[in-house]
Amino acid sequence: MKILLTNWINLLGVFIVNFAFSVVLTLTDPSLSYNIFQAMLAALFSVLGYGMMFWALFIVSLVIMDLILIIPNRKNLKIRLLIEWIIISSPFIYWTVKYHEWIFVAAVIAFFISQQLREKRIMVKQALKHLQPTNQGH
Length: 138
Description:
Elements: H1 7-28, H2 36-50, H3 52-70, H4 77-99, H5 103-131
Helix pairs in contact: 1-2, 1-5, 2-3, 3-4, 4-5
């Protein structure tokens, strides 16, 4: 179950990229005249408020896919994380095409990169788990 706790990597990675993407979009929009602070505040509201459905679906999808794909069997972890990425990213790619919201592309790319970082974190945790001495009641 500790694998579920590694999802913070995905959440943080996707949040940072979406936030930065939103700030840049806000600052480069010619119809808006925001300073950097206003752009950051608008981006924060956009990512958290407008993206509330995105975050809810993303978190639930991560937990469900981890429970199905990764927790029962950690062999071929890279492939399993890639499958998880494809399945979870599919609706967001569809939304990009349907609504022309490019922030979803940024989220999908950030999710892919964070999955790679997450794989390394899981592998380190597994290696450390095997190195720890077991308590045998001595």
